[in-house]
Amino acid sequence: MSSVNRRARNRAAAPVDGVLLLNKPAGLTSNQALQKVKRLLNARKAGHTGSLDPAATGMLPLCFGEATKVCAYLLDADKIYRVTAKLGVATDTADADGEEIACADVPDLSRQRWIAILQGFLGDSTQVPPMYSALRKNGKRLYALARAGKTVEREPRPIRIDSIDLLELAGNRLIFRVHCSKGTYIRSLVEDIAKVAGTVAHTARLHREAVGDFQSGDMLDLDGAKAIAEAGPEALRMCLMPPDRALSGLPSLHIDVEAGGRFTGGQPVTAPATEVKTGLARVYGGDNEFLGIGEHTDGGLLAPRRVFRVA
Q: b vs e for 55-92, b when ≥16 Cβ sit within 10 Å of the residue's Cβ?
């Protein structure tokens, strides 16, 4: 692209604000998927939350403009995955993209025994992250060390499994749905499940169905986004959710116009009377305009933590 065309494109880019739930296809990194949609929207600023491996599919929240301010809150959200594990074969990456490193017989366990094994992972526990992950050790990404043939010790990290349900069991294929906390590595979970069962395994397919309060019915696939954008970026922008939709798990508060002016100017305001007097809240002003995220402080005040200026 010539410098003239780049300047023209930059001038045409619009201040797009909102969230799009992309059903990420396999074969793309999360950032590659983001950049494709960013171009379709002709947006200036964009970010994604909760990276998916290239082979994984499913929900990838893409945030544009002011909505990029909610990225950190979505990273903390729970996730729901549909997982297909291939039993009896382990790979160096713990997924289908890796090289086979071990084989083992698959025990002939009953469905009830598999259910019991899965249920044993419920609740709070710790998990050792896989070597093929983006975590850093002494300033270097673990996956970079792994590709160099190095294995380093990883500290266990706290995770939580809220539900884990067996969906299908056929031969060496185990399919289950798991509702888990942030920071849970499904590839490690599959390996740990196989170890309890007396075999090895890797994640053959991974599909993310939900992030926080976002549900799969709100997703748009890449081909669908392209088709809508054929009518122009404005058509696709109509599919965006407002930034506060990503914060529906927080209680909401309403303040008057005068207080709203002070709040968006960075000043604490008197918190409205409410049953919830601690923690974060969504703050709305006149005409139900979303102003930002506030936090209750001592003395009955509401301090601005993130101010939004949605076009």
A: bbbbbbbbbbbbbbbbbebbeebbbbbbbbbbbbbbbb
